[in-house]
Amino acid sequence: MQQDPKLLLKKYMDGECSEEEKALVESWYQELNNINAHHSLSNHPNKNLVEQTKKEVWSALSLHKNKNNGTFLWLKVTSAAVVLIALSVYLFLYRPHQKISPTRQVVKVSDIAPGGNKAFLTLANGKKISLTDAANGELVKEAGLVIQKKADGQLIYTAGNSASSASGSQYNVIETPRGGKYQINLPDGTRVWLNSGSALKYPLNFAGHFRQVELKGEGYFEVAKDKTKPFLVKTALQEVEVLGTHFNISSYTDEAVVKTTLLEGSVKVKAIPGDSKVSAQEILKPGQQSQLRSNQIKVGPADLESVMAWKNGDFVFEGDDLKSIMRQLSRWYDVEVIYQGNFENLRFGGYVSRSKNISSVLNIMASTGKVHFEISDKKIIVTNNK
Questions:
Q1: What pLDDT is stored for residue 95 in this prediction?
Q2: Sign of the C-alpha dihedral, residues 243, 241, 192, 261?
Q3: Which 8-state DSSP code applies to residue 70?
Q4: In sequence order, which ranges of the chain are alpha helices (DSSP H)?
Q5: Which of 76, 176, 209, 270 is the most exposed place for a label (fewest CB within 10 A)?
């Protein structure tokens, strides 16, 4: 006997399934959770239906599986075979003309578009230049800088190396506003990607024994190798020293922990002691992340996909709490978040493209029925569903 899968999933979450029904639902979960095949669905005739079905199955099943640890859904499904299984469940149990719709919707007066290539450059002489919305090709040549826009729309700022012997004490600052991101190529060949609400201070010329820059916010570094001149990244609470490597630093003032994640090479993370005379420090290996809190450094394995998601154009969450997710959305969409209720045990996992409007992100979380969002005038009001 065929059953409506949405009703069956609801019975499962409410604990009302028979043993046979329970086994059927959990078999869906196991099949979806274990398959690792990789195929493309870009030209599949039922692509939209596939995505809707996948979302329904994952939302309901994952919510129940993790109900004791807060809501955890919106899981990443990279396998097309997983999607096809979800579709086959739909085609077997539903009539073709029926549609699945989200259980909740985000109330929106107006939607909010994602961020983009936005940055400002403050030269050593105090002049401020907007690097936003530039034309293709070489855009600006001033004080040794060149800004170019590639064919794919990516903007790259390349700093020239000044020949002035005194320039080592002069600094430029490039900063991305909330809702902005940018790539910078430094005079030594080091490449830096800045996330939203970040700033990088660098000298006109890397003179002396170190190549030192200062970071606020989040940046991903691909440091050019130079064994004779270590590269130093200073933040408000720590220093990172490298010779040539790839790593990410997240040092936002509204986050309780400073995270340094190593992808390649080796780095030394050193806490700036403040009132303490003892400075904690650790050497990271590839795949490790240090977390600095209260002058204490803890090192453990890193979730590289989650850490690098922002640079790769995605949001990836691994059971993150709601407020942590909303801080990221707040920076990228340049919105204010207002909370009305208690959300301490509400967690989500999964991924969505950063190129989507904010309602696309919020709708998926709202579909759990555990949280409600209202968008109005660059504000997101978050409330509990009752």
A1: 32
A2: positive
A3: B
A4: 5-13, 19-34, 47-65, 80-93, 304-308, 322-333, 358-366
A5: 209
| Residues 211 and 219: beta-carbon distance below 8 Å | no
Give the per-residue pLDDT at 256.
Answer: 92
Two tokens, residue 189? 């060949």
Record the tokens describing residue 74, joined without a space.
């919106």
- For the CA atoms of 225, 229, 233, 234, the dihedral, rounded to the nearest 10 degrees, stands at 180
CB-CB contact of 232 with 252 (8 Å)? no
- Look at residues 78, 90, 74 and name the one whose alpha carbon lies nearest to residue 40: 78
Beta pairing partners, 351: 316
Q: Torsion angle, CA of 35/37/40/44, rounded to 10 degrees? A: -50
Rounded to whole angstroms, the Cα distance separating 288 from 285 reads 6
Across the chain, which has 386 residues, the per-10-residue mean pLDDT values are 58 66 55 39 47 51 43 37 39 36 57 88 82 57 62 64 54 92 88 96 86 96 92 95 92 95 94 70 94 92 92 87 94 95 82 87 82 90 81
> What letter represents residue 17's amino acid?
C
